[in-house]
Structures
1.
Amino acid sequence: MVSLANSPDVQQIDLHEVIRKLEQEVAGREEAEQALKRGLAISEAALKELADQKFALDQHAIVAVTDVRGTITYVNEKFCAISQYSRDELIGQNHRILNSGHHSREFFEQMYHTIANGMTWCGEIKNRAKDGSIYWVDATIVPTSTADGKPCQYVSIRADITKRKLVEQALAGQALELCRRDEELARSNVELEQFAYVASHDLQEPLRTIANYTQLLAERYHGKLDEQADKYIAYAVDGAVRMQSLIRDLLKFSRVGKAEIELRTTDCRTVVEEALRNLRAAVKESGAVVNWNGLPMVLADPGQLTQVFQNLIANAIKFHGVETPLIQIDSEKKEHAWVLTVSDNSIGIPTESWQDVFVIFRRLHTRTEYAGNGIGLSICKKIVEGHGGKIWIEAQATPGCRFKFTLPSKPSPQTSLGAQA
Amino acid sequence: MRTTEILLVDDNPADTDLTSEVLSRNGGLSHIHSVINGVEAIAFLRREGKYANAILPDFVILDLNLPKKDGRAVLAEVKADPVLRKIPIAVFSTSEAQQDILRSYELGANCYVSKPGNLKDFISAVTRIGQFWVGLAHLPREEKR
C-alpha cells in the first residue's frame, strides 16, 4: 500500500494518474452511454417495425392467441368482425364457441396433436359466426414455447376464404349436375337402344307373320275366292310390307348419331365419289350428270357425310323433271364453317314446304307418284345437326332445288353447347 | 340314305309351319320335330320327360328370342355338353342386331341366318338352309361317304 503523506513525489505522480484514470473512466462512461442510446434507438426501431408488422398483419389477417387449453387470450379486430363477437365476448372463451359442427372430432384431435407437439398446423376450417352464419378460414396455427420447449400459447393467423369456398361448392355442385346429366343421357341412350331392338325384333316378328301369311294367301288362293277377296288380300299384303319398311326406316333414323359421330378430317370429294358409287345404278339409269369444283376438307364423320350427299343426290335423281338430272355441288368458306350447296334441276319443292320436307315420314307426293317413306331429308337434317351444322333450302333462279348445309370448320364443343361467353 | 332328323325350336307356330313346309319339300330326306321354348328344346335333346323316346337330331334350327329359356341359353348349354355339342345349330332369328349375331357365334352357333321379312325371301332362306345343311354338308351322324 502507498502512503501519500510519506512521499510527496509519489503523491504528485499519483494525482496525475488519478486524473487520467478519471478522465478515462468518464470517457468510458460516455461511450457506454452512447452505446446504450444506440441500443435503445435500435430497440425502438425494432419495436416500431414489429408494431408496423403487427398493424399490417391485423389489416390482412384474422389473428387470435389461445393458451394451451384453447382459451382465447387475444383477438384482433378482424377476428371480432368476422366472428361478430366483441372482444369481451371472446377473451376467456374456448375456441369451440366458433365450432360449426362441420368437422369431425378427429379433425380437431389431429390439429391439437400437431400443435401440442410443437409443430405448425395448416388447414381450412369452417366456423360459425355469432348470428349462425358460416364462414371459412384458411388457418395457420403456430405454437410458441417456453425456454424448456413446452408450448405456452398458440398463435393462429387466418384468412377469410368463404368466397372461394362458395365458388368451390358451386363448382362441385355443377360438376355433380353434369355427372347426373351424363348419367341421364347414358340411360336415355340405353333406352333408345332398347327401343331400337324392340322395333327391330319384337315389332318386326308379328308383322313378318302377317306379311308372310297374307302373301301365302295371295299366292295359294288367288282366283279361288272372288275378285274382291283378292283385292282385300292385296291391301293387307301391301299394308304389312309398308309397315315393315316404315319400321326399318324409323330404325335407320334412330341409329343416325346413335353410334357416336367420329369427327375426322374428311375430303368432301372422296365422300361425294363414294355417294355416287352407292348410287351408280340410279345415276346410270337416269343419265344424271354430277359436277363439283374444289370441294373442301371438312371435319365430319365420313360415313354420315356420305349419307347426306347420297340422299340429296338420290332425291335430285328421283324427282327429276323432263330434262336429264343435273346436279351441281359447290362450297363456300365462312368464318366458322363451310357452306356446302347441292343444286339440281328437279321438279323442286314449293316454298311453303321448305321446312316440312325435313320432318320424318313427311311426303309431298302420293306413293303412286313417287315411292319412299320420306326419310331421306330427315336423316340429312339429323346428321348435319349432329355435326353442329344447319341445313335449309334456298331459292334459285332456275327451276329445281337448292339445298345448303353447314359443317363447322373446327370442332368446337363449346359453341355447340352454346356456352361461349 | 337315312332321313335327317331336324329339331326346330321356335315359339312362333306360323314360322314353324312355314319352315317345316319348306324343309319338307326336299322329299323324304328330312324328318322335322318342333318344340316351342328353350326348356323343351333341352329336354328333347337330353331325351328327358315326355321326350324320353325322342330321337337325337342331326341338326337344330334355333330361334333366339324364346320364352322360358331363350335361344342364347340353349346354345350355351348345348355347346357346353360333350355329347350334344357336335350337333350343328343354325340360328334363325328375326334379329339383325350385330350383338345377337356376335353373341351367337361366340356361344358356338354354326351359322346365323336372319328371317327375311317377306315370303319369297323367307322361303328362299329356309330352302338354302336345307340345301346346305341337309343336302350338302356332312352331318356328324351321317354315315354316307
Note: The helical segments of chain B are 13-24, 38-46, 71-79, 98-106, 119-136.
2.
Amino acid sequence: MNEPSPETTPAIEISQLTTRFGDHVVHADLDLLVHPTEIFALVGGSGSGKSTLLREIILLQQPASGSIKVLGVDLENISDPAALALRQRWGVMFQSGGLFGSLTIRENVGLPLREHSGLADPLIDEIADWKLAMTGLEPSVGAKYPSELSGGMMKRASLARALALDPELLFLDEPTAGLDPESAEEIDRLIKKLRDLFGLGIVIITHDLDLLWQVADRVGVLADGKMQGIGSMTELARLDHPAVRKFFDGPRGRAAQSGVK
Amino acid sequence: MTQTPATAASITRTKPLELALSGSWTVRGIGRIDSELETLAMPSGAAMVIDASRIDAFDSAGAWIVHKLLHRLHGASGQAEIRDLRPEFVRLLDVVGQEIAQQASTSPPDAVKPLNKLESLGRGTADALEQGVALLAFVGESSLALGGWIAHPARIRWRPILYNIRSAGFDALPIVGLLSFLLGVVVAYQGADQLRQYGANIFVADLVGLSMLREFAPLITAIIVAGRSGSAYAAQIGSMAVSEEIDAMRTIGIAPLEMLVLPKVIALFIALPLLTVFADVLGVFGGMIMARAQLAVSYPEFLDRFAKTVSVTAYLIGISKAPVFAAIIVTVGCFQGFRTHGGADSVGLQTTRSVVQSIFLVIVADALFSVAFSALDL
C-alpha cells in the first residue's frame, strides 16, 4: 500500500464508532471525516456525547467498537511509543484550562518543550513567552500562577500550552465559554490567525453561535449518537432536521446568522 | 509542518563564508543544536550566507533558533543572508522576527528577587503571627456559632452530626481497637522482664491499667482520629473552597460554619470519648493476654488486682482529655481547610499541615495535662 501524502490524509477519520456506558448508547455507528487544515466545529446538546467523542479522539477513552484514525494513525491497539509520538502532534485546550497549579504560566507553557525537546532552558522560556504573546497575554502573566488568573486568561494560557509543540491538529473544548464578548471575538480572530500561520487543523467543541458563523469552515451536529448534519453553516441552515434547526431557530440563532449577512 | 520522521537538524560549513542547514528544524529534530551554534566561530567583517535549501521541516522553535543565528551573524559581520528557504517557512521566520523585535523593545518583567535570610525570617514570623490571629478568630466565630445553636436548638443540623459520628467514630472502631490492643500487648511485654526479676508479676495489672487508661488510650485514639478524620476535614473543606462551593453556600444563606464545622465539633465531642473507652478496654485486654502468656498471671487474678489498684479517677482522667483532643482536631482540620485557596496543590498542603499541627497540639496538650494533674495530685 502506498503511503498517502500528508496533504490528503484526513486529520480525523472515524467510521462505525459505537460507544456505550453500560446500557446507555452514546454513539451508534458514527462516521466522521475532518479534512486537514480545516476548522471543524462539533456541536450538539448537553449529553449528546461531544466531549466523549473528543476524549476518544485524543486517546483518553476507548470506544466500544469502530475505528478512529487521527493524522492517518489508527488508534485501535496503538502501541505506547506510537501513542506518545501521536500525542506530540496535537495540542488540546481543555475547557477549564487544565493548567498545573504548582507551575507558573511560563513553566506550564514550556513544559511540553522541556519534556520532548533538548532545548536549553532560556530558549524554552523565550519560546514560551512568544506563545503567550501570540495568544494575547502580557509578558508579566508568565511569572504568575494559574490561581492568580481570570478565566479568560486561563483559557489563553491553556491555548498557548496547546501550541507549544507546533501541533498539526488543535483541539479546543469550549474555547469561548465564559468569556466576555470582546475576549471571545479575540479568540475568533486568534483561531483564524493560527490556521493561516501554521496551516493546522482545528477541531472545536462549542455552543458559541458567533464562533460557528465567523470561524468554522464546516460544522457537524451530533445528536442521538450520530452526526445529523455536516456542512458549512449556510448549508446547515437549509437542512430540515430538528436537531440542526435548534441552532438556527430561536432568537440567538437568528441574531448570530444576521450578524454574518 | 508536515510530519517527517525527525532527521536531526544539522549545520555544516560548506565554504568559509557559507553555512548549510539541513534536516528537521523542529522541536523533535533540533536536539542540542543551539549549544552547537553557541560554539560556532563567527567571522568578522565578511558577509555570511546561510543555505537553507535542505531544511525539510521547520517549526516555531526552529525558526526561533535560525533567527537568533541570523541576528548573531548580523552582529558579527554586519551582514548575513538566508537563501533558498521554502516560501512557507519564510513566512514563519518573518513572524518570529517581528516577535523577537517586540520582545526586545518591551523591557522584560522584573525578576523576582530571592529573599535574604533576615527578610525571609521576618516574613515567616509575620505569616505565623497572622495564622495565629486567624486561628483565634476562627475559634471565636465557631464558638459564637455553637452558642447560637445552644440558644436555638431548633437550628441544630442533626443529620450531618449523625453522619460524622458514624464516619469519625464508628468507622474508626476497627483500627482504634487493633492498635490499642497491640499497645497493651507491647506495654505488658516490655514490663514482663523487669517485673519477673523481682517476682512482682501481679503488678503487671497496675502497669497496664494505669498507663493505658491515663495516657496511652486517649493519646493513641486522638492521634489515629487526627490522621483519619482531621485530614479528611481539611481535604473536604479545602476542595469545597477551591471549587467555590463554600461561596455558593454563603450566597444561598447557609453559614458554612454551621453546615461544615459545628456538626463535626459535636460529633467528635461524642465520638472521641467513646472511642477512648473502647481503646481502654482493648488495651487492657491485650495486656491481660500477655500477662498470662509471659507472667502466668491468670485472668481472674489480673482483673482482681486491676479492680483494686486502678481507681475510677484514673479512668476519668483519661476520658476527660478526649473532648480537648477532639476540639483540637476539629478546629485545626477545619481551620486549615478554610485557609485553602488556589488549586489542588493547596488542598494537599493544607491537609498535610492540618495533620502535623493537630498531632503536635494533641501531644503538647497531653504534656500540659500531665503537669496539671501532677500539680493537683491526681
Note: Residues 1-5 of chain A have pLDDT under 50 and may be disordered.
